[in-house]
Amino acid sequence: MTTDLNFSSAFFEQFECPICFEYFKLPIHLCSLGHSICNRCKERSRNCPQCRQPFIQNSRNISLEKIFEQVSKRCKFSECSSEVTLDQWHNHQSECKYNPNIKCLECGSSEEFLINHLVRNHEYKEISMEQNECLRSFSGPMASWHSNTEWPKGIWKFGEEYLVVKAKTHSGVFHVYLYRISKNLIAISLEITNQDTGACIKFKGDIPHISDYVDLSTSPHFNCEIKQLMTFIKVQEDEQDTYKLSVKVKKKDIVMYIEEPIIEESHLDEFEEHAIEELPLDVFEDRIIEESSLDDFEV
C-alpha cells in the first residue's frame, strides 16, 4: 500500500521547525491550534510563532515523532556515510567526527554560522568595535554588582574578527569571559582607570577558542573582586540608579613563526651565524604577548 504514495516537495518542509528552519529537535511540542515547534525553540518561546497562541503544557506531536523514527537521511557532512533517522539527526550532527561547525555555547547545537545563531536565538548583541582599540562599558543597578548576575551577552566585532563576551557577577567576583571564533590567535588587553585618582587595573593575554568554552571556567579570563572594583564604578550622569564600569579594550593579532628545519651538523655553524644576524626584533615583542596569561593583571 505504501508504494502507491507520492509526496510533493512541500511534504518534507513539514519536518522543519518554523523558528530555526531545521529538522524538529525532539520532543515536538504543540500550541493550542495544533502548530508544531521543536524542543530547543520551545524553551525560548512563550507563544506559537505562527498564530501567537500559547503552547499546551505537556502536549506533544507524537505522530510526527513516530515518523521521525522511521525516516532516515545521510549525514549532511560529505565525508560521513552514516544514515541517520531524523529523531537522532541533531545528536549525530553534534557528535559526528566530520563536523567542521562550532558547537553553540548556549544550547549545544552544531552551527555553521554561530554569530547569526547567537544573535537570533540567544539574545546576543553584536557590537562594532574600532579595528584595534575601543571603549566599552558594563552598566547596571548597584544590586547587579553585589549579587549573582548574568550580564547581557555580546559579540565584539573587530573588522572580520569576532569575540564572544559573557560577563557574570558570582560570589563577589566580576568575571568577563572572552572567546574567539576564528582560528587566528588573538591577544586582548583590558584596562580600567579611575580618572580621579589615576588608579588603574590592567589585564592582558591570549583569548581561548570558543570550542574551549566552559561555564564559570577557571581558564584564563578577566576576574576581579567587586570590593576592589568599587573605586572604578561610577554613577551614570543621566541615570542616578545605574552604575557603570568603563573598560578600554585593545586587540592584537598574534603572528605564529614557523621554526626553521633542522640543518645537517656540517652546516650548523653557518646557519647559526645567519640566524643571529637576520632574526627580526619583533619576534621577541610578539612572544611576550603570547606567553602572558589572562589571569596576570597588574594593579
Main β-sheet description? 6 strands, mixed
Oligomer: single chain
Give the % helix. Answer: 10-25%
| Whole-angstrom Rg | 26 Å
> Helix/strand/pairing class, anyone?
alpha+beta
CATH superfamily of the domain at 125-255: Apoptosis, Tumor Necrosis Factor Receptor Associated Protein 2, Chain A
Written description of the protein model:
It holds the Pfam family Sina_RING. This is RING-type domain-containing protein. The chain has 299 residues and is of the alpha+beta class. Among the domains are: 72 residues, Zinc/RING finger domain, C3HC4 (zinc finger) (Herpes Virus-1, 2-Layer Sandwich); 131 residues, Apoptosis, Tumor Necrosis Factor Receptor Associated Protein 2, Chain A. It has 9 helices and 18 strands. The strands form 5 sheets. Strands 8, 10, 11, 12, 13 and 16 form a 6-stranded mixed β-sheet that branches. A hairpin with a 2-residue loop joins strand 12 and strand 13. The C terminus is likely disordered.
